[in-house]
From TrEMBL:
Organism for this UniProt entry: Chryseobacterium caseinilyticum
Protein name: GNAT family N-acetyltransferase
Gene3D superfamilies referenced in this protein's UniProt entry, alphabetically: 3.40.630.30
Start and end residues of each N-acetyltransferase domain: 5-170
PROSITE patterns linked to this entry: GNAT (PS51186)
Protein origin, superkingdom: Bacteria
Amino acid sequence: MEPKIEMREALISEAGQIWEIIQQAIERRRQEGSSQWQNGYPNRNTIESDIAKHFGYVLTVDDEIAVYTALILNDEPAYSSIEGAWLSDGEFVVIHRVAVDEKFSGKGMVKFLFNKIEEFTRSQNIKSIKVDTNFDNLAMLRILESKGYSYCGEVMLAGGMRKAFEKIIF
């Protein structure tokens, strides 16, 4: 039987479990030799704030949390200044803080997540998704390429320069 995979808003009662998943991702990035997420961000307060602001989302597999992400509508101050050019200047959804539970690692969950984010974006009548990642986050760079995101340039976020991507969906 196919597993039931859904994306929904995260609940504040899930903050502890989500923080565990984020900590796994922080450790994975450290083991890969990345500087991303190695300076105390994101932290538990970041996650609780995401959820309180209705930015926090989870991808569940048979009701078990597999992936956490933050989806923010039209608000990423760092994106107003890009070395390069965005594909569009209308409304957009920003993807931040993608973290996969180790139990679901390597099972294509982030690709499922990106499909669900496209559905979510369409449901909001928004045509653009923007995302940034560290230059050394090879797994995310591969996913962005496979999902048809266009490299637009670089943006400065806390922690340094990030590669910025956009996808126009119709």
